Amino acid sequence: CKNPAWVQANDFSFSGLHNPGNTGNPFGSAVTPVTVAQIPGLNTLGISMVRIDYAPWGVVSPHYHPRATEILTVIEGSLEVGFITSNPDNRLISKILQKGDVYVFPIGLVHFQRNIGHMNAVAISGLSSQNPGVSTIANVVFGSKPDISTDILAKAFQVDKNIVQQIQWRF
């Protein structure tokens, strides 16, 4: 925490959310966070936000936020969004959203977004934590340091160990 006598307006502001993120990556998406890391004044306030830019057919890979519910608003374009309920049902709850539509991803559930249009799309999400965290499923499972044993992952995914090793090598 900062000494209140040293607090300034810059501790409560962020500039640049109007700038598109760079979607020139394998996922075709870019997330611009506005969390306590960017605005120290969010500390203890329980809120944050992100801007998400999507190239045509770009995705935000399946992930979850361990400390936040997310509410997403489509600003431009059309998105396919969804989340998966917990075990044992693992139901996919999904919808196609248009400009102005809003969707909620409950805390801790795996969710995703995909631009289904031929033009760029933009969304803004609010999160119920100043530090929501993000765990991208593929990165967590295949990119852990040190690696999860290939025997464990091969059995869990019911695939050959060579396939697991090839995927782990990419991360």
UniProtKB/TrEMBL annotation:
One of its GO terms (cellular component) is apoplast. Keywords: Apoplast, Disulfide bond, Glycoprotein, Manganese, Metal-binding, Secreted. It comes from the Eukaryota. Pfam families: Cupin_1 (PF00190). Residues 15-165 form the Cupin type-1 domain. One of its GO terms (molecular function) is manganese ion binding. Its main location: secreted. It is found in: Secreted, Extracellular space, Apoplast. Oxalate binds at residues 65, 70. Mn(2+) binds at residues 63, 65, 70, 111. PROSITE patterns: GERMIN. The keyword Transmembrane does not apply. PANTHER family: GERMIN-LIKE PROTEIN SUBFAMILY 3 MEMBER 3 (PTHR31238). May play a role in plant defense. Probably has no oxalate oxidase activity even if the active site is conserved. Belongs to the germin family. This is Germin-like protein.
